[in-house]
Amino acid sequence: MRTAYSVETVRAAERELMARLPEGALMQRAAAGLAAVCTRLLTRRRGRVYGARVVLLAGPGDNGGDALYAGARLARRGAGVTAVPMDPQRLHPGGLAALLAAGGRLAQEVPRRADLVVDGLLGIGGRGGLRPAAAALAGQIPPGVPVVAVDLPSGVDADTGEVAGPAVRADVTVTFGAYKPGLLVDPGASLAGAVHLVDIGLELPPAQTQALQHADVAALLPAPTATSDKYRRGVVGILAGSRQYPGAAVLAVAGALRGGAGAVRYVGPAAEAVLARYPETLIGPGRVQAWVAGPGLGEGRAGEVADLLAQDVPVLVDADGLRGLDPELLRTRSAPTLLTPHAGEAAALLEVPRESVEAGRLSAAAALARRYGATVLLKGSTTLIASGGGPVRVNPTGTAWLATAGSGDVLSGLAGSLLAAGLSGPDAGAVAAYLHGLAARHAAGSAPGTPILAHEVAEALPKAWHEVHSR
Ligand SMILES: NC(=O)C1=CN([C@@H]2O[C@H](COP(=O)(O)OP(=O)(O)OC[C@H]3O[C@@H](n4cnc5c(N)ncnc54)[C@H](O)[C@@H]3O)[C@@H](O)[C@H]2O)[C@@H](O)CC1
Ligand SMILES: Nc1ncnc2c1ncn2[C@@H]1O[C@H](COP(=O)(O)OP(=O)(O)O)[C@@H](O)[C@H]1O
Ligand SMILES: [K+]
């Protein structure tokens, strides 16, 4: 499990540790880790550190200090290191002295030729968008030169991943002590590149943000035992599709059949299309251990969705099922509810513009979970799973090729199947998003660089399932 922590938590852990260590020890640990990553990168690109041209963008705080001390280490190995301060009057004094003593120099402008740029403008002390001096330096980074961000790309909000105005786009981010949520959640995550975590010895409480990894998913996946039968493994009911959108029903059933439930029951007007593709499907109402309600329902079906929500079994509500959902009705349910909106549907539920959901994904997911008393899986470039009180899960798998019609239907069937198999709302949501994203990568991998289709994602689910068990 990867875990991420808020600035407040990181600072508290840092204070506690600093009180037990000699002054400056933590920054030396951070700088050593940063210099090691820079060394690896330079060695890979040009064979050695000696003679490399390294540019440090140095901000006024400790983030700049980390960069300056790391720069000093690289200068001692023969790199030509130039620090460009955001404000020449405010540079970390110890870091500056170390850099100059090691043979580094100061400049006012970013040199045009460089082998590596280190972004030490702002770390967890950054607030709001980059101010003009910082934005100007960020804008001078020569194109094509690899950028290593110190702790996080400057301009990214560490707690939320929000980016107000310009920000640094890094190839690699070296983060200290713990991941910050902004490194896992878009738009920040897309600016961070590959993230390296340097352990500086912080002791941290239970995480507020988590990202599952293969082993976590493998441990949660259902597996039949000697005493299993199809009913004990769980039956998932799918209320989906309409005369206009029969395909959504087929795709939701496709996801559900590969999600670990013992049987899939379909209810709705697309039975013929479903059976033609999946003769395994049971047709018509009956007992289920979880419902999926919504994909391709079209308009005017809210009554059917409400009837399912009145049953005391887990219900996943997606797509058209989300229209006009009553928060009161959901809050009075005792069985779990899982809502799976994309940004547009989340915006409608929250009565805010879509852009504000996309810019503030973490807060939107958490607000929805609170308002509806449900687990919320917010789809998009980084899918988030939020539930009242518990940590927010950030899905690390997927590909932008998933932005294709019908892939959400596969996801809802899959997550519903996991609910029927007995997973909790947050686990079903997180495991489904993880497998769905991996399956999409498998599907995309069969002809790299070309579009994928939603049914191919469903067909690749067994490969994803196998992959999480085999590593
Ligand atoms: N917290 C920890 O556990 C550790 C922190 N370290 C480093 O310390 C950093 C935090 O250092 P600081 O608290 O000094 O904060 P920063 O260095 O992130 O930034 C603080 C300075 O930036 C200015 N500033 C804030 N927002 C700005 C904006 N939008 N545009 C322009 N200027 C802005 C502030 O006025 C302040 O002077 C971390 O990110 C990390 O790099 C490491 O040295 C080691 C351990
Ligand atoms: N830019 C993106 N990068 C990665 N995944 C994405 C992106 N945009 C959408 N997705 C994923 O694609 C799927 C689309 O679902 P959805 O919007 O419900 O489409 P549909 O209703 O057509 O099935 C979701 O799993 C979502 O997380
Ligand atoms: K930075």
Automatic annotation (TrEMBL):
<dbReference type="Pfam" id="PF01256">
    <property type="entry name" value="Carb_kinase"/>
</dbReference>
<comment type="function">
    <text>Bifunctional enzyme that catalyzes the epimerization of the S- and R-forms of NAD(P)HX and the dehydration of the S-form of NAD(P)HX at the expense of ADP, which is converted to AMP. This allows the repair of both epimers of NAD(P)HX, a damaged form of NAD(P)H that is a result of enzymatic or heat-dependent hydration.</text>
</comment>
<keyword id="KW-0456">Lyase</keyword>
<keyword id="KW-0511">Multifunctional enzyme</keyword>
<keyword id="KW-0520">NAD</keyword>
<feature type="binding site">
    <location>
        <position position="154"/>
    </location>
    <ligand>
        <name>K(+)</name>
    </ligand>
</feature>
<feature type="domain" description="YjeF N-terminal">
    <location>
        <begin position="10"/>
        <end position="208"/>
    </location>
</feature>
<dbReference type="GO" id="GO:0046872">
    <property type="term" value="F:metal ion binding"/>
</dbReference>
<keyword id="KW-0547">Nucleotide-binding</keyword>
<feature type="binding site">
    <location>
        <position position="119"/>
    </location>
    <ligand>
        <name>K(+)</name>
    </ligand>
</feature>
<keyword id="KW-0413">Isomerase</keyword>
<feature type="binding site">
    <location>
        <position position="408"/>
    </location>
    <ligand>
        <name>AMP</name>
    </ligand>
</feature>
<dbReference type="GO" id="GO:0052855">
    <property type="term" value="F:ADP-dependent NAD(P)H-hydrate dehydratase activity"/>
</dbReference>
<keyword id="KW-0521">NADP</keyword>
<feature type="binding site">
    <location>
        <position position="248"/>
    </location>
    <ligand>
        <name>(6S)-NADPHX</name>
    </ligand>
</feature>
<keyword id="KW-0479">Metal-binding</keyword>
<dbReference type="InterPro" id="IPR030677">
    <property type="entry name" value="Nnr"/>
</dbReference>
<feature type="binding site">
    <location>
        <begin position="62"/>
        <end position="66"/>
    </location>
    <ligand>
        <name>(6S)-NADPHX</name>
    </ligand>
</feature>
<comment type="function">
    <text>Catalyzes the epimerization of the S- and R-forms of NAD(P)HX, a damaged form of NAD(P)H that is a result of enzymatic or heat-dependent hydration. This is a prerequisite for the S-specific NAD(P)H-hydrate dehydratase to allow the repair of both epimers of NAD(P)HX.</text>
</comment>
<dbReference type="InterPro" id="IPR000631">
    <property type="entry name" value="CARKD"/>
</dbReference>
<dbReference type="GO" id="GO:0052856">
    <property type="term" value="F:NAD(P)HX epimerase activity"/>
</dbReference>
<dbReference type="Pfam" id="PF03853">
    <property type="entry name" value="YjeF_N"/>
</dbReference>
<dbReference type="InterPro" id="IPR004443">
    <property type="entry name" value="YjeF_N_dom"/>
</dbReference>
<dbReference type="InterPro" id="IPR036652">
    <property type="entry name" value="YjeF_N_dom_sf"/>
</dbReference>
<keyword id="KW-0067">ATP-binding</keyword>
<comment type="similarity">
    <text>In the C-terminal section; belongs to the NnrD/CARKD family.</text>
</comment>
<feature type="binding site">
    <location>
        <begin position="123"/>
        <end position="129"/>
    </location>
    <ligand>
        <name>(6S)-NADPHX</name>
    </ligand>
</feature>
<dbReference type="GO" id="GO:0005524">
    <property type="term" value="F:ATP binding"/>
</dbReference>
<feature type="binding site">
    <location>
        <position position="63"/>
    </location>
    <ligand>
        <name>K(+)</name>
    </ligand>
</feature>
<feature type="domain" description="YjeF C-terminal">
    <location>
        <begin position="213"/>
        <end position="468"/>
    </location>
</feature>
<dbReference type="GO" id="GO:0110051">
    <property type="term" value="P:metabolite repair"/>
</dbReference>
<feature type="binding site">
    <location>
        <position position="151"/>
    </location>
    <ligand>
        <name>(6S)-NADPHX</name>
    </ligand>
</feature>
<comment type="subunit">
    <text>Homotetramer.</text>
</comment>
<feature type="binding site">
    <location>
        <begin position="379"/>
        <end position="383"/>
    </location>
    <ligand>
        <name>AMP</name>
    </ligand>
</feature>
<feature type="binding site">
    <location>
        <position position="409"/>
    </location>
    <ligand>
        <name>(6S)-NADPHX</name>
    </ligand>
</feature>
<dbReference type="GO" id="GO:0046496">
    <property type="term" value="P:nicotinamide nucleotide metabolic process"/>
</dbReference>
<protein>
    <recommendedName>
        <fullName>Bifunctional NAD(P)H-hydrate repair enzyme</fullName>
        <ecNumber>4.2.1.136</ecNumber>
        <ecNumber>5.1.99.6</ecNumber>
    </recommendedName>
</protein>
<keyword id="KW-0630">Potassium</keyword>
<comment type="similarity">
    <text>In the N-terminal section; belongs to the NnrE/AIBP family.</text>
</comment>
<dbReference type="InterPro" id="IPR029056">
    <property type="entry name" value="Ribokinase-like"/>
</dbReference>
<feature type="binding site">
    <location>
        <position position="342"/>
    </location>
    <ligand>
        <name>(6S)-NADPHX</name>
    </ligand>
</feature>
<feature type="binding site">
    <location>
        <position position="296"/>
    </location>
    <ligand>
        <name>(6S)-NADPHX</name>
    </ligand>
</feature>
